[in-house]
Design goal:
Its main location: membrane. Pfam families: Xan_ur_permease. The chain is mainly alpha-helical and 491 residues long. The protein has one domain. Helices cover 64% and strands 1% of the residues. It has a two-stranded antiparallel ribbon. The two termini are 30 Å apart.
């Protein structure tokens, strides 16, 4: 009697009609979907992270005083380099790349330090070569440190990562508030009721879309809110269509378009701190994604993934991009859709490259009025802060030492926001580091964690009471209620 083939939960063939064993089906992470489905799901990943990847170049470009044309170029360059970094992470080259469905793009963690660099020079354009040089050095050092860092995860528990993620969101909120008032502080309509009303309308649209839609539409609520806000702004003359009219259909981000990289000590230190933050987040994200897709990330996978992050960051400035890291919202999308193929995300990376090679497409974001970006930024930046708070909830704040770590670290990190002139007496080069609340808060949290949990009796007490980090729980919470049950896997 012929035996029918049996299939395991992961889709592997257990038997054949002749009683033999066929080659096992690929793991869902290595599955290749039909072309149309691959393209649509890849576009969904792009839509989920598009607003996040274009926000940093908009923030830094505006601080650097770039023209609309240069701002469009910078945005396109960041899209292009995000695609390259995504290729490195998903497809991999030798020991580089986790080969998990990771989307990589410009990290928010680097925005505040880059703004500090921009504010430290007389001509804003001179800041970009300094930023690019610092990112290159930080990326190369991170690449060398990746295998060692993968073994140091225990020094970055949720009490540290949660504090840093919270500071990232809170530090960026003033940027959203500035956007809401208008593009130019010297303009007569800066902070006018019209600008604030446009920002409020965008925020309301995003909230309504999140509340009353689901699935794909809900995932791109921020992007749709920006589109709707721009359409509302057009009749009132608040949207400038000039960048689109003058943008080329095709273009290439010429290497070092803004000048050869420069290497300033303070900027390098600041970006190295950001690299530590980025590597910490990426490590936690890899642990989470490994659980979600059913391929747990071991030390070797984490090291390979960190190499992809850091190498992508080091190469990004060559094409005028910034530091790259994994996008947590796309991990939530993997958990929600239960499509675990890394090739789907690689296709998304291909779309990012194409957008970067089409200035006309990249220029569309330059049309969005600044108040509209401000309204969307409240959700975008606030969500980052909220995910940090959710991480802190699981950090064991019932223990006094953890409360002290969070309290002091947040206080140190909030100084540049609450008292912008606090470090006015310090040398300008030192202020580049101190004026970044993310950098100072991360250093404070790490140092206090070492003091309270890894020295003397504190180490023994911590080892007895500390609970292992549950990555799937962490990412499920940070991605929001759409992700579903912690650690859920596709059947």
């Amino acid at each position: 009697m012929a035996m029918k083939p049996r299939f395991t939960r992961q889709g592997r063939t257990a038997g054949t009609a002749t009683g033999g064993r066929a080659a096992p089906a690929p793991h869902p992470v290595d599955e290749r979907l039909p072309p149309l489905r691959m393209a649509m799901t890849g576009l969904q990943h792009v839509a989920a992270m598009y607003a996040g990847v274009v926000a940093p170049p908009l923030i830094v470009g505006a601080a650097a005083g770039l023209s609309p044309a240069d701002l469009t170029f910078l945005t396109g360059a960041c899209l292009f380099t995000a695609g390259l970094a995504t290729f490195l992470q998903t497809l991999g080259i030798g020991p580089v790349g986790s080969r998990l469905p990771f989307v990589n793009g410009v990290t928010f963690a680097g925005v505040a330090p880059m703004l500090a660099v921009a504010h430290s020079v007389q001509d804003g354009r001179d800041a970009l070569p300094l930023i690019f040089g610092a990112v290159i050095v930080a990326g190369l050092l991170g690449f060398l440190a990746a295998p060692f860092f993968s073994r140091m995860v225990r020094f970055f528990p949720p009490v540290v990562t949660g504090t840093v993620i919270t500071l990232i969101g809170v530090s960026l909120m003033p940027v959203a508030f500035d956007w809401m008032q208008g593009p130019d502080a010297a303009a007569p309509d800066y902070g006018s009721l019209a600008n604030l009303g446009l920002a409020a309308a965008t925020l309301v649209i995003v909230l309504l879309l999140r509340r009353f839609t689901k699935g794909f539409v809900k995932q791109i609520a921020v992007l749709l809110g920006m589109v709707a806000g721009t359409l509302v702004a057009v009749p009132f003359g608040k949207a400038d269509l000039g960048p689109v009219r003058h943008a080329d259909v095709l273009g290439f981000p010429a290497p070092f378009h803004f000048g050869a990289p420069q290497f300033g000590g303070a900027a390098i230190v600041s970006m190295c701190v950001v690299m530590v933050v980025s590597m910490t987040e990426s490590t936690a994200d890899m642990l989470a994604l490994g659980e979600i897709v059913g391929r747990p990330a071991d030390e070797r996978t984490i090291a390979a993934g960190l190499r992809a992050d850091t190498l992508g960051s080091a190469l990004s400035p060559v094409f005028n991009g910034f530091m790259c890291s994994a996008f947590a919202q796309n991990i939530g999308l993997v958990a929600m859709t239960r499509i675990r193929s890394r090739f789907v995300v690689a296709v998304g990376g291909g779309f990012l490259v194409l957008l970067g090679l089409c200035p006309a497409a990249a220029s569309l974001i330059a049309v969005v009025p600044r108040p509209v970006l401000g309204g969307a930024g409240v959700v975008l930046f606030g969500s980052v802060a909220a995910s940090g708070v959710q991480t802190l909830v699981r950090a064991g704040l019932d223990r006094d030492n953890n409360v002290l770590i969070v309290a002091v670290s947040l206080a140190v990190g909030l100084i540049p926001i609450a008292a912008p002139d606090f470090y006015h007496a310090f040398p300008a080069q030192v202020k580049i580091v101190l004026d970044s609340g993310i950098s100072t808060g991360c250093v404070a949290a790490t140092a206090l964690n070492l003091l309270f949990h890894h020295t003397g009796r504190g180490r023994a007490a911590w080892e007895e009471t500390a609970e292992p980090m549950e990555p799937a729980v962490r990412i499920a919470a940070s991605a929001g209620p759409d992700v579903g049950a912690p650690g859920a896997r596709a059947s």
